[in-house]
Amino acid sequence: MFFGKRLVYLLTSLLLLAGTNCAKADDDWDDFYIGYRYGFNYSEPYEGNAIPKNILTFSYSGSYIYGTNYANLDVLQSTSGDPVLGNHNQGATEAYFVYRNVVYASKVFGGNYQYGWMRDFGATAGFDWNTKNNAYQSEKRMLVVGPTIMLDVPGFLNASVLALWESNHPSNCAYANNMPASTCNPATAIPNGRYYYKLHPSFNLVWGVPFEIGTSRFLFKGFLDYIATKGNLESGNPSGPETHLDTAIMYDLSPSFGLKRDMLQIGFEYEYWLNKFGNYNSGSAGNPAYSSPTLNSPNGALGSTPAIRIEFHF
After folding, report:
1. How sure is the predictor about 263, in pLDDT bands with cuts at 50, 70 and 90?
2. Structural domains in the chain plus CATH codes
3. Is the entire prediction scored with pTM above 0.70?
4. E-assigned strands of the chain?
């Protein structure tokens, strides 16, 4: 019930943001969509990398007088390979919310800052928020801020260097002593409380590039994060640098159903995630040689996941 209430609050916040009439420029735009994707090879540290997930997405992006807003809520439903706390036959549910505000120098100060391959420059700020009902009971909170360069391409391509302030509040049955979540023993787990990682940098690319083949419209979109180490993890193990790529090619199906352009899109997505959440895949989180024999499969901290994706835009 508590998890459900949090999900309602997040969704309500996203809808309010989508409906908020912020100060708008003459060239304002916005987009809200509901999406679904399915992949069969997602990874979870200490649990392996052959976990199917159904993912429901509510996403908003739009412009305002000084830049753009982006908000995205993913609701991820795992199968039993990533079990809910207390029931190994039922998959865990996670809600992950991202908000980013990008401010453009040209909109704040006026003038044209285009130079060569650079369209504009500015800054990005925002936060990540998640909750999950598996043994770890993740309560991630993360603030981000840093400079951004907007590259001159069809659509958009933004490059940012961000500072990350990240913390988590795992349950009293979290990963401890290199134990997988399915066999976590509260007597040996880390004490209950919020754990703060060291301030660490990341490099971020995010893009959305439309293109056409004949009369067919496509969109190449995604993001790439390289996240530096963040000190020790809750277990006391050193964290590793993360590489996280999530990209998709979407095809506009709208004309086939008599819909407005870009309303209905379907496509193929690929996610690659090395050292997920800062866990070294070569260590206990991903290598059964260094972990419990109950580990379902290797590469729990290495994801390589194809997925199908469909979106309906309003």
Report:
1. very high
2. 2-22+32-313 (2.40.230.20)
3. yes
4. 30-44, 48-64, 67-78, 83-84, 87-91, 93-104, 118-132, 141-151, 156-168, 195-196, 200-213, 216-227, 242-252, 264-274, 302-313
